[in-house]
Amino acid sequence: MAKQNLNIAQHNCGISPVLGVIIMVLLTVILAGITVSAVYSDDMLASLKPTPVANIDVVSAEGGFPKYPNYVKYEDNFVHMRHVAGEPLPLDSIKIEINGCGSAYEGVVPHGTLHTGDIHISYENLNFDGKDSDYSSNNQVLSDGMWSAGEELVLNGQDGISSSSTVSVTINGITNTSNNYGLKEEEIVSIKILDRKTKRIIAESECQVTLAE
User: Fold this and answer.
1) CA distance readout (Å), 45 to 38, 41, 48
2) Which of 59, 52, 61 has the alpha carbon at shortest distance from 150?
3) Mapped to the 3 state alphabet, what secondary structure does 1-27 carry?
4) Positive or negative, the Cα torsion across 44, 49, 55, 60?
């Protein structure tokens, strides 16, 4: 009996370290899962949300530069887009990106430096706040906070002239601009409408810029 008891005691001593290791591994896995969930929960939740479905048409793009030979002012640059069909889009969750050939001022107008070349224009949202006052007058149909079917959105080269601008303009990689812009006539611009919550594209299109009158 004594010998059996000794064998049992030796067996238990062998199991205890194994159980300890297993428990340590399980705790590590659980803690790792909690950490990953905490870090990526927002992205994971965003990926589960549906992207709004809407059909957006680029009606026209009119532009030009404030230099020879046409001397088109930035305030005469317009992009018109129409919500043709689909879900209403909340202004605070919609982002618009425009890429193409354009013009912008580095620094403060009129003391800045005029640049032309590759331009990237980003409207972080479509709200009236953070934009020139003319933006709201050009888009009175959006006063309910939604861009709905049948309504036209009007973007202008002066929209970003604000002390707290929600429009950012990069020209040839230069980010220190006045956030105003012109689009080169006869060139093609690409336009993307994105849902900020899911970071997915709702619609995208290309349009040729015509010379503003």
Assistant:
1) 11, 6, 5
2) 59
3) CHHHHHHHHHHHHHHHHHHHHHHHHHH
4) negative
70-87 pLDDT per residue, tens: 899 999 999 999 999 999
Give residue 142's Cα distance to chain centre.
19
- The C-alpha atoms of residue 121 and residue 169 are separated, in whole angstroms, by 5
| Nearest by Cα to 165 from 117, 131, 128 | 131
Token pair in block for residue 188: 């093609």
C-alpha of 86 from chain center = 20
Across 44-58, 111-125, 169-183, least confident range: 44-58
> Dmax of the chain from CA atoms?
109
Q: How far apart are CA 41 and CA 53, in angstroms?
A: 24
Q: What backbone torsions phi and psi does residue 52 show, to the nearest 5 degrees?
A: -55, 145
Other Cβ atoms closer than 10 A to 73: 14
